[in-house]
Amino acid sequence: MKVMAIGTLKPLTPEQRTMYLPKEVPATLQIYLDGKMEQFWLRDKEAGVIFLMTVDSVEEADTILKALPLGRANLLTFELMPIGPLSPLGMLIK
Amino acid sequence: MKLTIAGKGIKTGRSTAFAVLIGLCVTLPPARALAAEQVRLNVTGKTVPTTKILAVGSWTPKATADGVRPVLPAEVRDTVRLYLDGVIDQWFIQQDNSGVVFLLNVTETDKARALLEKLPLGQAGLMEFQLTQLGPVSPLASLIGAPAK
Do the Cβ atoms of A93 and B51 come within 8 Å? Predict the structure, then answer.
């Protein structure tokens, strides 16, 4: 299933950037390399991130994202939305 | 082969024969022996997970505009059903009308082939698909020194 993960980032101090980002970036890329993240964006003004996840459940997405360094530090929190095909299109083929 | 179904530019007579010849030259898949000799360079040494299948659909040599037109209404509906079932992730038509390109939420080639062959154009032998398993761009791992999998 697909889960759209909308992440909101707390403003980071320079010290926090130095502490977390060198670990956060590779950990995020690893999620992509594992085939769990299809697409990734940064929200404008570094408000957060948007990840399109391909996972077995919302819980799996939650576990993966909370394990990220910024997630563990509660600096990046996610709203998780299970999404799917635009089912109303089905009205057109009845 | 480029068939114009909806437009007015349906080729007839000699021009059709010519288009078929050109189409065959352009769309014939490379010989199997050649494919086997192609370089498959695994730079990273990692096994790439399959996350999608790219399906490129092309008209078969026997497809004609007159043969395809009556099948299209059912083809469109069944394609929409594949999308609604979550099988088709993204869908495109080749701009030159030579076929379609689907990105499938399927990881097994056999399953993808079975689903696509069930479509009306596939049943009628008018369209065939070339399938390619896809995965994350594994060489990006070299940026992070990720452990081999």
Answer: no
